[in-house]
Amino acid sequence: MSAITLKPLAEQTIVITGATSGIGLATARRAAAAGAAVVLVARDGAAAETEADALKANGLRAAGFAADVGDADQVEAISAFAVATFGGFDTWVNNAGVGIYAPLIDTPLADHQALFQTNYWGVVHGSTAAVRHFQSRPGSGALINMGSIQSDFAGPLLGAYTASKHAVKGYTDALRIELLRAKAPISVSLIKPSAIGTPFPQHGRNLTGSKARLPPPLYAPNVVAEAVLHAAQTPVRALTVGAAGRLQVIASTLSPDLFDRLAGFTDLALLDRARPEPSARPDNLDTSTNDGARLEQGEQKGRPFSLYTGAHTHPALAAGLVAVAGLGALAGLKQTLTARAFGKGSRR
Asked: Among 99, 43, 96, 94, which Cα is nearest to 68's?
């Protein structure tokens, strides 16, 4: 296989879909601050351009572009725009996604299909455009697809979303195998966030009649952005963001029957049944909410760090922390042994 050598962020151009909200917005801002040229893609083109202008006003490199990732032609236009604006791109991040809060049996077929058009076909369209671009030029490239911890297990009320994330994982893993077989120098990564404090509940379609929310513990979008940008520079197969999510994946693997029974009660954490919410409110299933760039939601804030994720994205730092902890333990042991020896001597 051809060696995969990814550039430092300051030398990269990065395309990010779903770039005006939550994880995508956090990633775009961090990438630009690190020196990368960023193409912010969203259905709300005005929001994408406004955010790009704000970055450029601070001396950073950015451009906004309006596109619906569910449309293959529009996704090809993203690639052409990146080539025309920055001469190409080095990393493509398929981040755009939508959600539906509803039992599967009550989810209208048209809604289910619309969700897959964005969450699954958007990844297929973006991956195809990215791989074709990488194959047309020398050097390595990074394709980063946004999965979820629900790529590995399921739960109630977000069944359509879960199914789409399972599909994204299957597609991503199969594409990686094919590119390995072809000896293509393309890194293919799947990022699997735990619950993240983004506007997902406000943007998702809600057919339950109760206010939607996310199950705690939550992590901040910047925690995922750090994982994404790590994968943009270091080839990584998959990375789960947040120890809470990793523990759920392990539990679902070790004891699937018990996990299924317990998971059936997670709807209690997904809905606030004391607060009604009309199903007719605006959402982003079929079109943009046109509410501008929003990093986080107002009510549920995520914790700003994950030691588990940091250990994977900063292994040297993790090793240092382990070493410090080890030295601390040795110092404590030495002190205990000295105290015991001194105590024995005084009794003699």
From this structure: 43
User: Which tens digit of pLDDT belongs to each residue from 162-212?
Assistant: 999 999 999 999 999 999 999 999 999 999 999 999 999 999 999 999 999
> Residue 65's CB: how many other CB atoms inside 10 A?
22
Which residue in the list 161, 171, 219, 308 is annotated as catalytic?
Answer: 161
Residue 17 three-state SS: strand
**3-state class of 51 per DSSP?**
helix
DSSP state of 194: -
For residue 26, give both structure tokens: 């956090």
Q: Which residues contact 47 (CB under 8 A, 6 or more apart)?
A: 20, 64, 288, 290, 292, 293
Catalytic status, residue 161? yes
Domain boundaries, the chain: 9-313, 320-348
Q: Which helix (H) or strand (E) holds 273?
A: strand 271-276
Residues in a beta bridge with 172: none
pLDDT tens track for 66-99 = 999 999 999 999 999 999 999 999 999 999 999 9
**Whats the size of the chain, residue-wise?**
348
Interatomic CA distance for residues 147 and 165, integer angstroms: 5
Distance CA 135, CA 138 (A): 7
Question: Domain 9-313 maps to which CATH number in 3.40.50.720, 2.60.120.620, 1.10.3720.10, 3.40.50.10860?
Answer: 3.40.50.720
Q: How far apart are the C-alpha atoms of 200 and 206, rounded to whole Å? A: 11
Question: For the whole model, what pTM was predicted?
Answer: 0.88
Give the tens place of pLDDT for each residue, 244-281. 999 999 999 999 999 999 999 998 999 999 999 987 78
Please name every residue paired with 192 in a beta bridge, in sequence order, or none if there are none.
240
Identify the DSSP state of 303: B
d(CA 239, CA 330): 32
Kindly state the helix (H) or strand (E) to which residue 269 belongs, with its residue range. helix 267-270
CB-count exposure of residue 253 (10 Å: 0-12, 13-18, 19+): exposed
